[in-house]
Design goal:
heterotrimer, A mainly alpha (about 280), B mainly alpha (about 280), C alpha/beta (about 220), A: mainly alpha, MetI-like fold, 2 domains, 10 helices, 2 strands, about 75% helix, C: about 220 residues, alpha/beta, 5-stranded parallel β-sheet, 4-stranded antiparallel β-sheet, about 35% helix
């Protein structure tokens, strides 16, 4: 066959592959939905689970996941914001900035199970927070620090240099500049970072599975030292039991809820980023 | 005000430093006890001896295999997306990839248990579908978005002049893509693969559910259809049992330290490659 | 009477590149001094050195003395922010913030001026730059809706609101059309009765028309 036909064939083949990969997400969603259907009933989201998770709903698991996510972001945001502001506005040496960059990359690449192990050791044992939602939130907070930092940093670096020059020329102190120029113009980065951080924390299992969670017995945590049930660990335990399709259907149902939550948060992050960024640039 | 921000920055730095410090500190007992035998030993009997070789082997093999599986597909789609698609379609693909990258590990684990394990069991006539091969396939799917998106970025980063010159000389789009753009983007693609490897090595939940969790080097060593064990999977399975103290805990932490250093090195080199996006 | 600015043996280097070499001069109060020369000869660097805007740049090193009203501005005890309020700077491209005209004018003094004095301050400085009549009815509209020439005058008003006696202008008319340029030039002439102005320009006619003194720059190779 001549080379023109070969090339056309290759390009066609590649396009098929691309379509396949692009539909992967849909395929996954479809699979999760199809398998979860038997368990999905109208009360799924608001009922408690019964019979050791083999029936009923996932209300408290959902609440547990939400508690961990929210706690994580609340703790992580000030540290992420403060550290990025320090690195972009006050830190002058290039070496210092490079070190911070490398540290952020290191934190981002760390296998999440290690966060769980060391985090439990530090927060749970040494600081005596025990196996609790507080320990879990703290661990997740450290884990999502790089995620938040990236969004915030992107927004700050997108700021035109002139803004900073003008602010400086008017005699504004660095703190004034941060208050009046940087934060108002860059808060879309903060919001984006928050949503992406929530999404990342929501999907994480390994970091919290023995540091924050329980499979049964607890509903709402009643104190700072109570563990919580979560969607992720609920799925994990049910999957390992994998005895019959009904049990598994519960896991799939929880999976559908979790997946939808993560996708929703990510898409929200995108929408907010473009909407708020436009407003900031008007 | 500066001191508040500096303090927050310090907290950030300490988190990372603390992680490293604790891993080393907690690993010390077992390493003092067994020394290099920790990494060379093949037997892991709780309370007696701790040998990490099966886990090291499993992690390496699973990751290498996943990498082999992912590479052709990622390159193929990256070439097509970068060189043949319009910018709107490209943005769509990138959006899908970003969403895929966010799918929780436990969902992949569930898919692996319910679909992949059974398929592999049937197709290859095995007793148990939880094998190295299963884990590799699952990981390949999981790291595909990362490797793909970074490879595509690397190809996009090749300056337009190269394409223009090639097309001007009469080369077809396909030839331009494969003979001009692809070679230029190689460092970036290397970086993409390394980062994908780093991610695959660290994945716990999905692998834990499908790798078989058998602390043995397969016999023969290249039998990918036997059950095996990786480092994160081992940690995931046993950490709950011995939290906090004891030799067992120290051994687990030493495993964690090994994983940490491996992943960090790979990521560091990968990022270095990414920085040198095109051959200068 | 003390000259407003005294520069003694100023040498400025960025890393190993020498941009200004052993420069000295005196600038009298309430005058306009133009600095002209080819591109890259260090005019902007000189201007920025007078309000310590180069401090942020890595590798910046200065030798010699720069005295503003008899005070060495590079002395470690000097409050840099206070200095920049005394020595104002206008840039080539006017940069207005995406806020209302009113808020832009007050940007540098927001928390230092009582609310009741704000309106009169805005009116005063906008009148000084000959912009008041044009915008007095739309102070709340976005500053980005103004023409480039108006934006530049707004930037000058914003700087004046902070109250500097010395104004540094780095090619203020380069981005403007001839009409706006003429407006700025007559503005400079009216400002010099109460302000000391240093003007960087590459237009010789402008320099001759507007200034009392000229400084020529040579390229340092």
């Amino acid at each position: 066959m001549n080379s023109a036909t070969f090339e056309k064939g290759m390009v066609f083949f590649l396009s098929i592959l691309t379509v396949l990969v692009s539909s992967l997400l849909l395929i996954i969603l479809a699979a999760v939905f199809a398998r979860g259907l038997p368990a999905l009933h109208s009360g799924f989201l608001i009922e408690a689970s019964e019979d050791f998770g083999r029936a009923g709903g996932i209300f408290y698991q959902l609440v547990g996941t939400l508690i961990l996510m929210t706690g994580a972001v609340l703790v992580s945001l000030p540290v992420a914001l403060g550290s990025v502001i320090y690195q972009t506005q006050y830190l002058k040496s290039e070496t210092g900035k490079e070190i911070c960059r490398q540290v952020a990359q290191m934190l981002n690449a760390t296998p999440t199970i290690l966060f769980g192990l060391v985090g439990y050791l530090f927060f749970g044992v040494y600081l005596e927070a025990g196996v609790s939602w507080v320990t879990g939130s703290l661990i997740l907070a450290v884990m999502i620090l790089p995620t938040l930092q990236v969004s915030i940093r992107e927004a700050i670096e997108a700021l035109p240099d002139q803004y900073q020059d003008t602010g400086m020329a008017l005699g504004l102190s660095p703190w004034s500049q941060i208050k009046t120029i940087i934060i108002p113009q860059c808060y879309y980065g903060i919001i984006t970072g928050v949503f992406l951080g929530l999404a990342r924390a929501a999907g994480e299992t390994a970091a919290i599975m023995f540091a924050a969670t329980t499979f049964s017995g607890i509903r709402f945590p009643e104190s700072f030292s109570d563990p919580v049930p979560t969607l992720q660990t609920h799925m994990l335990v049910l999957t390992q039991e994998a005895a019959n399709p009904e049990t598994l259907a519960q896991a799939w149902g929880a999976g559908l809820v979790l997946l939808s939550l993560v996708l929703f948060l990510t898409v929200m992050a995108w929408i907010l980023r473009s909407r708020l960024k436009m407003e900031a640039e008007l | 005000m500066m001191w508040i921000f500096a303090g927050l920055n310090l907290i950030f730095l300490c988190c990372a430093g603390g992680l490293f410090f604790f891993l080393i500190f907690e690993s010390y007992p077992i390493l003092k006890l067994q020394g290099i035998d920790f990494w060379l030993g093949q037997d892991w009997w709780v309370g007696e001896t701790y040998g990490a070789l099966p886990m090291l082997y499993g992690s390496t093999l699973v990751t290498a295999l996943a990498c082999l599986l992912v590479l052709p597909l990622a390159l193929a789609v990256a070439i097509f997306t970068s060189e043949f698609l319009t910018s709107t379609s490209r943005r769509f693909v990138k959006a899908v990839l970003e969403l895929l990258a966010g799918v929780p590990g436990i969902v992949y684990g569930l898919l692996g248990v319910s679909f992949l394990s059974l398929w592999i069991k049937d197709v290859f006539g095995l007793l148990d579908g939880n094998t190295l091969a299963t884990a590799s396939c699952l990981l390949a799917i999981m790291i595909l978005p990362t490797v793909l998106t970074l490879s595509e970025d690397a190809m996009r980063a090749v300056p337009a002049e190269y394409r223009d010159n090639a097309l001007g000389l009469g080369l077809s789009k396909w030839q331009t893509a494969t003979a001009v753009v692809l070679p230029q983007a190689l460092p970036g693609i290397m970086g993409a693969i390394l980062l994908g490897i780093g991610r695959a090595m660290g994945e716990t939940i999905a692998v834990m559910l499908v790798v078989g969790s058998l602390d043995r080097i397969p016999n023969p060593w290249f039998n990918i259809f036997s059950s095996a064990q990786t480092i994160p999977s081992k940690l995931g399975r046993e950490a709950a049992e011995s939290i906090g103290e004891g030799t067992h805990w120290s051994a687990l932490m030493a495993l964690g330290l090994t994983l940490f250093i491996m992943v960090l090195l790979i990521n560091f080199i990968g990022n270095r490659f990414l920085k040198r996006r095109s051959i200068s | 009477m003390n000259p407003a600015i005294q520069i003694k043996n100023l040498t400025v280097t960025y890393g190993s590149i020498k941009v200004i070499d052993d420069f000295s001069c005196e600038v009298k109060e309430n005058s306009v001094t133009a600095i002209i020369g080819p591109s890259g000869c260090g005019k902007s660097t000189l201007l920025r050195s007078l309000c310590r805007m180069n401090d942020r740049i890595e590798g910046f090193h200065i030798a010699g003395q720069v005295l503003v009203k008899g005070e060495n501005i590079y002395h470690p005890d000097v409050d840099v922010y206070e200095l920049r309020r005394r020595v104002g700077m206008i840039f080539q491209k006017p940069c207005v913030f995406p806020k209302s005209i009113f808020e832009n004018v007050l940007f540098g003094v927001k928390h230092k001026v009582d609310k009741k004095d704000c309106e009169s301050l805005v009116e005063r400085v906008l009148t000084e730059v000959n912009l008041w009549e044009e915008v007095k009815d739309r102070l709340k509209s976005l500053a980005t809706t103004l023409s480039v020439g108006q934006q530049q005058r707004l930037a000058i008003a914003r700087t004046l609101a902070v109250g500097p006696k010395i104004l540094l202008m780095d090619e203020p008319t380069s981005s403007l059309d001839p009409e706006s340029t003429a407006a700025i030039e007559s503005l400079i002439e009216s400002l010099k009765t109460h302000h000391t102005i240093l003007l960087v320009t590459h237009l010789h006619e402008q320099a001759e028309k507007v200034s009392d003194n000229l400084i020529f720059c040579n390229i340092i190779k």
